Amino acid sequence: MCKMDIAICILTKDEDAKLRRCLESVKDVGAELIVVDSGQNESTKALCQELAAQYHAYDWEENFALARNFALEQTVSNNIYFLDSDEWWDEEDVGFNMSQLLKYFNRPDLAEAIGVATIIDHRQKDDGSEEEVGQLEQRAFNKAYFHYNKDVRVDEVLSSTLGFDSLAFNLVNVTRVHHDGFLTAESRTKKNAQRLVLALKDLEDHPGDSKALLTLADCYREGGQLEAAKLVYDQVVSATTGRDGAELYQTVVDSENLLADSPDYHFMAGEIYGMYREEEKSRQHLEKIIAMQDQGLDSKYVQSAYYLVGKIAESKGDFETAKKNYRLSGEYPDALDALAAIL
Which residues have a Cβ under 8 Å from the Cβ of 56 and sit 6 or more positions away? Predict the structure, then answer.
């Protein structure tokens, strides 16, 4: 087994069966394996010894960023990759993932570039069948240049150690990861309740902060509290657009039939629904603009629509569809940047 200059860090608590699956999925890649256990279980410690992973007990401080930074302190390698214990690499993805990580960590711009993984959430639907939902999360970086912002307790954010946050950018499709922590409705409710408490604390510390508000709204939405989620999204949209968010949203809904042939309406609807995280509605309106492109529309409308459809696909981990739409955007600057960021 060839030793790789990468540390894979794993946070866990009372999940030995899932931790075993996680460790076994990466134990042969030759990386430094670091396990941080906030449950402080002897069984977890024994499991780590069995699978040649370093075990570190940790006193939970109601802050995921602090736990992740603690993990960084335990690594020899500066090249860092994070997994959670309810995540794993599929056997068929191991070769691809390692190739992507090596490609990423050999880049000359690690002081600015953060590696983003595609997280495939396994979830049970109401009928008992299972679906896979893709999302993107920052997971790979060099700790000489990045650490976790301790002021953000949930949906942790990487910050530059050199003060270059404004220059940092994401490189997506670095790895493909499976996750079943939200598999059942019960598990989603339990984990979301924990995230909601932390999100409220973040907002209390940073009142009015748009990122904190978005995280809170997403927690409400994930927990099925849709009215609460919309009220928070209203605040974010109001702050972003300078107009009343609730009024904008209602205007979009009320104008559906009246302005069905208006590209201006469809573009506004695509943007507003996107801001409310209603991606399917957003995509439908943007695709109507694309369908109208032979009617003499301003090319910037069509380019922007292709770009935004690409972003929706990218957010779900569908990179082929994303790249197709970015290319169809022509020379649209944001699309060119997005295309360049997909490894």
Answer: 34, 35, 36, 37, 70, 71, 74
Helix (H) or strand (E) holding 342: none
pLDDT digits (tens, 9 = 90+) for 154-200: 878 899 999 888 888 999 999 999 998 777 777 778 888 888 998 99
Looking at this protein, which amino acid is placed at residue 60? W
DSSP letters of 79-118? EEEEEETTEE--GGGHHHHHHHHHHHHT-TTTTTEEEEEE
| Structure-model confidence comparison of residues 183 and 32, the more confident one | 32
SS3 135: strand
What is the pLDDT, as a whole number, of residue 297?
A: 76
Asked if residues 60 and 67 have their Cβ atoms less than 8 Å apart, the reply is yes
Average pLDDT, the chain: 92
Cα separation, 280 vs 221, whole angstroms: 15
Pairwise CA distance, residues 33 & 263, whole Å: 53
Report the C-alpha gap between 339 and 103 in whole angstroms: 17
Contact 69, 19 (CB under 8 A): no
At residue 124, does pLDDT exceed 60? Answer: yes
Q: Which two tokens stand for residue 76?
A: 């020899």
The C-alpha atoms of residue 296 and residue 206 are separated, in whole angstroms, by: 46
Instruction: Pick the closest to residue 4 from 109, 105, 142 (CA basis).
Output: 105
Q: What is the pLDDT of residue 82?
A: 98
* 3-state helix/strand/coil string of 219-284: HHHHCCCHHHHHHHHHHHHHHHHCCCHHHHHHHHHHCCCCCCCCHHHHHHHHHHHHHCCCHHHHHH
Whole-angstrom CA distances from 184 to 16, 124, 128, 129, 236 are: 19, 6, 9, 11, 30
pLDDT, average across residues 215-238: 92
* Secondary structure (3-state) at 308: helix
pLDDT tens-digit readout, 229-288: 999 999 999 999 999 999 999 999 999 999 989 999 999 999 999 999 999 999 999 999
DSSP state of 295: G
CA distance 281 to 108: 40
